[in-house]
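Input protein
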Amino acid sequence: MRARPFGCFKTLKAQLMQSAATHNSPRTWLLTSSFSPLIIRLIRLLLAHGDYVVACYSPHEITHDDRSAEFRELISDCKGNRKDREGWSTRLRPVKCDGRDKAQCGAAVAEAKDAFGRVDILLCCTSEAIVGTVEELSTSSATQNLVRDQFETIFFSQVNFIKAALPILRAQHTGHVMILSSIGGHIGTPGMSIYTAATWALEGFCDSLAYEIAPFNIKLTIVQPHKEIQSLTNKIVFSPQVPHYDRENSPAPSVRDMLGNVLNLNPDTAVEPSETDIISRYPKLPASSVDKLVMETIHALTAIGGHENPPARHIVGFEGAEAVKEKLKTVTEELEDFVDASLAVDIFDSELQAEARQGQITSGEAPGGSSSMQS
């Protein structure tokens, strides 16, 4: 889609400061991470739409040549003379920011407001996957540090950005916080217990936050693609293996094997099993494979971002939706199987108990239409 003509930059900045952006009008996005193949493609789409993008990037990633190559190419394209990229350079603001540092997050948000007058959408998209069983992550101080690193990356860094952005969003009385999570927010994965724990922590934080910010017309959406989408577009860290969990003792396919097999398709990222070393890799997939992998997620982010009535959660893709439905079905069945144990602790009269067991009672409604409950 062709970028819209906006006239002079100062006039546009004044207009943005005066009124909230609608869903289809130019919006200002603040991205907490910008080097993943998914986010690079998202940025290109946003710029083509005419949006403004503040793209934060980690000082640790910028020194990794392969990881930063696509972003550098994007910057080069923005400076080019192609007519379909006109104005890209003025609407993209790269900002070096370590999300683990609260002050740097505050400075990044302030720069976004100074550059474009407002922040319409904060997209928390920083991720990495620590792979290892609970025992494998408990063998040494180095592996225990991986646990802390996982929470710093997925939870604390994103919380820092959210806290920094809230005063601006509240003052605007409009805004949209989006969390690019995964269905790991619903379903645990053997071998990724700490990844799952950090994801659940962030989602639990946001579930509570959504109620707090609703009076200020600030929306919050958690977008959950399949776990492989986040894992295969960000850094993967393998803890040393414990023999008890190798293929001989546990013949079922493990997430370590599945991710390792993908990395081994490229000689630059190939991994060998190790019982002593921590190994980290940035996956390098063919561009065509990346396009297919991330297309649905990018579509979801652009369709939902800045929407007047966005969903609280959006699961991307059929497989992810089916997996979550199956998990929720199991939870429901277990609730029904043990309803007697649940009701045993409540002080209901016998009639209420009978109706509850039959699933006929509505929340807070007593027999005969009365809303009171006997104690």
Notes: Residues 1-21, 370-375 have pLDDT under 50 and may be disordered. The chain has 13 helices and ten strands. The first helix runs from residue 9 to 18.
